Amino acid sequence: MTISCVGRRFGWHTADVRRLARGLTALALVAALPASAAAYDRQVSLDVVAGWGLAPALEVAPNHGPSFGVASTIGLDDAWGLGVQLGWAVHPPFANASDPTFHVGVFGVEVLYYLDILAVVPFFGVGVDLLPTVQGDRWAVDFAAHLRVSLDYLASREITIGVDVRPYILWTNLSVDPIYLTFQARLSVLFDY
Predict the structure, then answer these.
(1) What is the pTM of this model?
(2) Distance of alpha carbon 62 from its chain centroid, rounded?
(3) pLDDT confidence band for 57 (50 / 70 / 90)
(4) How far apart are CA 42 and CA 39, in angstroms?
(5) Burial code of 75-99, b = ≥16 C-beta within 10 A, e = fewer?
(6) Are 44 and 190 in contact (CB under 8 A)?
(7) Using CA of residue 95, residue 99, residue 100, residue 104, what is the dihedral sign?
(8) Kind and range of the H or E element at 73?
(9) Cα 186 to Cα 152: distance, rounded to the nearest angstrom
(10) Would you state the pLDDT for residue 25?
(11) How far apart are CA 192 and CA 42, in angstroms?
(12) Distances (CA, A) of 111 to 10, 57, 66, 74, 137
């Protein structure tokens, strides 16, 4: 009762005191947390990936099949990184065994942006690629650009498990097969530098 009277005398109400207490508690919690988790800051990763490739518009060959690859990233700071990838997808003729197998290679570089949330790290990227394709005795190389959406689980400071989705826009093949997609699982080993 006395606090209430003193509060009214100086223009304070009980609700104001509660708001001030909540604000100070939130400020203390934020100050107690580390400034940045820095999951990939000053680290290099060596990655092994496996998944599935899909060419939705492709009609002259099987439009999907398994993909495999290796990759590496370098963390420049707590939010930015650079990556390089080398992969291969095989599109076997599931329906007609006499059709030749369609192969798609990927060589790309990308810029990555990490949203570091302790043990779970979503991140995004954009990159450029060369995609060689082979079907029977026909081969070609397409220039592409891609987006990357990934989610990592940091099992430890040295090991991560992640999933990656990359839609590729094939700039040199827009009329026949403009988009190629990969859905991959990834195991990464990290080293400090």
Answers:
(1) 0.75
(2) 27
(3) confident
(4) 9
(5) beebbebebebebbbebeeeeeeeb
(6) yes
(7) negative
(8) strand 64-75
(9) 9
(10) 73
(11) 6
(12) 56, 27, 25, 10, 35
